[in-house]
Amino acid sequence: MNRILLKISGEALAGQEGVAVDPGVADALASQIAEVHQRGVEIGIVVGGGNILRGALFAQAGTTRPTADQMGMLATVINALTLSDALERQGVETRVMTAVEMNQVAEPFIMRRAMRHLEKGRIILLAGGTGNPFFTTDTAAALRAMEIGADVLIKATKVDGVYDKDPIHNPDAERFEELSYDKVLERGLNVMDATAITLCKENGVPILVFNLFEKGNLARVLGGEQLGTWVR
User: Fold this and answer.
1) Is the pTM of this model over 0.85?
2) CA angle 215–15–30, rounded 5-degree value
C-alpha cells in the first residue's frame, strides 16, 4: 500500500469526556502516522468533527439541516488543524485542505494540488467534508480516496474490526476478518454509511477497519499483518 486514505472520527481525538480535543490523543495518533510516513507511505487524512459538534443533533433540535451540517464542517477544520500541528511537531510536513473555502486558515481542496503535495512527501489533512450538506465525513473519505487514487481506505476505530453486534455489550459478538460490500449493506453493519460503501464498491476501493489506538497497529497492518476487518 503506497498511498492510503485514513479516516479518523472526531470522537477519536476527544478526551475521556468525549468532547473537545485531547492534545495527548492527537500526539499519540501523530506518532503512529509519522512512523509509517517515514517508511515512504503517502497519506491523506479525512477527519470528522463529532467531538465538537454533530450537525445531525442540531438539525433534530430545530436548526435547518444545511446550517447544522455547515457547522459540523467547520468543526472538522479545528480537528484537522490540531492533527496537522501534532504531525508538524513530529517533523512531518503537512497541508490542511478544505472543501469550504477559508484561505487564511487552509488551502482549498483541489485534486491536482492534493496529488502534488502527496508526491512531495507531505501529509494532507482533508477537512470540511464534501463541502455539501447531507453528506457525512464517511462519504467524504470515500470520495477523497478515489480522487487521490488511494490503494485503500482505512477507517480508524477503537475496536479491532467489524462485529455482528456491539462487542462492548455482547461478549459473544463475532468479529469478521473479511466481508463483501454487499454483505455490509445487506446486514446493515456499522462500518461506514451506505453511500460511502456504495462508492467504494463501484470504484473498487477496499476498506480496512481496525483499532488505531493500540500503539504500532498502523505500521503492523501496512506491513501485511492480518488485523481488523477487510471489506472488498
Assistant:
1) yes
2) 40
pLDDT in tens, 53-84: 877 788 888 899 999 999 999 999 999 999 99
Are the C-beta atoms of 181 and 230 separated by less than 8 Å? no
What number of CA atoms fall less than 13 Å from residue 72's CA on the CB side? 30
Full set of structural domains in the chain with CATH: 3-231 (3.40.1160.10)
Distance (Å, whole) CA 122 – CA 125: 10
Q: How far apart are CA 166 and CA 169, in angstroms?
A: 6
Q: What are phi and psi of 162, to 5 degrees?
A: -100, 130
Q: Give CA–CA dist 17/23, Å, rounded.
A: 14
Question: How is residue 218 written as a grid cell?
Answer: 498502523
